[in-house]
């Protein structure tokens, strides 16, 4: 039987009670649809308070959708988007960014989810060559798909390099809150202030029911965004219910508390797992993910009670991705680690 809470994904968790309350509170009377309402106005104001007054803010349904519409606004079909080979947009979005933008993704091998200017440079050789796609956007994921976090200097270095070559920097911020919590930074300190041009900011993975934000820091990028958003089916008609959630998430530091809890629980999980000799942690634990090699023969037994995804397969072991959520507790970790110890001692 599956345990009531597991570590497969932060998408598997429920909704924070304050967010549910905000949805309920927004459920009164009629308001204008598609975002022309007081909830959306207030949520945008909160977003600007966190990302800076230059932020142009839009709310969409999902994370893949956010990536697609943001990238579409930044590119023409003859452009290319440079990202890590491990990027969600490259691996797990069923080709949606390529389909909707028409752009080729140029990938950079990465063992920890991060890319560097060295890797980007290799894709710039054909800039200005009529026969090659033209790199226009560098996309980084913060925190990365491997739970690692770019420092402010690393982001600034990539942003400066991109701008020097006429490219924009986009951040897939599915776990931007976790990255900010790890870096002890506010949100604008790791985005607008270090040269990010556009980003997505996830609510879903940090305690909301659903909803993501797309933010632009350059007016020229968002000038036609309203049309792109609608055409790509990412304009929620009952926008107030996403906006009310964002307003609650960005009130009283809830976004940061949720992210801090998830990060702290990932640290605790990693320390418990490292007490088990046959398990090996493979990545730095900086956000809310723990990557761990588990001998293959134990994996199906563990998964029957605690389902999780395996990322890489090696001869003797599977690499498990274990994610903590806003609602993970120390008791959840104790139960899981205790179960693992028992199974692996067999
Ligand atoms: C890094 C990253 N980007 C984007 C997404 C896409 O989000 P969604 O599943 O809401 O489309 C995910 C989902 O897990 C993700 O992990």
Describe the protein in words:
By secondary structure, this protein is of the alpha/beta class. It folds into two domains: 17-249, Type I PLP-dependent aspartate aminotransferase-like (Major domain) (Aspartate Aminotransferase, domain 2), CATH 3.40.640; 254-345, Aspartate Aminotransferase, domain 1, CATH 3.90.1150. It is built from 14 helices and eleven strands. The strands form two sheets. Strands 1-7-6-5-4-2-3 form a seven-stranded mixed β-sheet, sandwiched between helices. A four-stranded antiparallel β-sheet has the order 8-9-11-10, with helices on one face. Helix 1 packs across helix 11 (240-249). The longest helix has 20 residues, at 254-273. It is globular. The two termini are 19 Å apart.
Give the CA-CA distance, first to last residue: 19 Å
Return the domain count. Answer: 2
Number of helices: 14
Biggest sheet strand line-up? 1-7-6-5-4-2-3
CATH class of the largest domain: Alpha Beta
Could you say which structural class the secondary elements and strand pairing correspond to?
Answer: alpha/beta
How much of the sequence lies in strands comes to 15-25%
Q: What is the chain-wise order of helices and strands?
A: HHEHEHHEHEHEHEEHHHHEEHEEH
Query: What is the CATH architecture annotation of the largest domain?
Result: 3-Layer(aba) Sandwich
């Amino acid at each position: 039987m599956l345990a009531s809470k597991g570590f497969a994904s932060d998408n598997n968790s429920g909704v924070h009670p304050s967010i549910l309350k905000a949805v309920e509170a927004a459920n009164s009377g009629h308001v204008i649809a598609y975002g022309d309402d007081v909830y959306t106005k207030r949520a945008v104001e909160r977003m600007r308070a966190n990302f800076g007054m230059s932020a142009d803010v839009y709310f969409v349904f999902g994370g893949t959708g956010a990536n697609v519409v943001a990238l579409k606004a930044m590119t023409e079909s003859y452009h290319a988007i440079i990202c890590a080979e491990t990027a969600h947009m490259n691996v797990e979005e069923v080709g949606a960014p390529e389909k909707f933008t028409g752009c080729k993704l140029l990938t950079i091998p990465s063992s920890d989810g991060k890319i560097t200017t060295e890797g980007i440079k290799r894709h710039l050789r054909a800039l200005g060559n009529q026969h090659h796609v033209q790199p226009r956007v560098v996309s980084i994921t913060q925190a990365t798909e491997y739970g690692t976090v770019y420092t402010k200097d690393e982001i600034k270095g990539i942003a400066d390099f991109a701008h020097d070559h006429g490219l924009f920097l986009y951040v897939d911020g599915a776990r931007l809150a976790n990255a900010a919590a790890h870096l002890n930074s506010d949100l604008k300190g790791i985005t607008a202030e270090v040269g990010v041009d556009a980003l997505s900011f996830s609510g879903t993975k940090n305690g909301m029911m659903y909803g993501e934000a797309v933010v632009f820091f350059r007016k020229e990028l968002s000038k036609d965004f309203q049309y792109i958003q609608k055409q790509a089916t990412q304009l929620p008609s009952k926008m107030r219910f996403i906006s009310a959630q964002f307003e609650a998430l960005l009130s009283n530091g809830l976004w940061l508390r949720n992210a801090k809890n998830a990060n702290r629980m990932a640290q605790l999980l990693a320390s418990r797992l490292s007490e088990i000799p046959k398990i090996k942690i493979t990545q730095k634990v900086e956000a809310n993910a723990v990557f761990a090699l588990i001998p293959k023969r134990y994996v199906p037994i563990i998964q029957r009670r605690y389902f999780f995804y395996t990322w890489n397969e090696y001869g003797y072991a599977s690499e498990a991705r274990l994610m903590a959520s806003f609602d993970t507790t120390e008791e959840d970790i104790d139960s899981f680690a205790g179960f693992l110890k028992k199974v692996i001692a067999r």
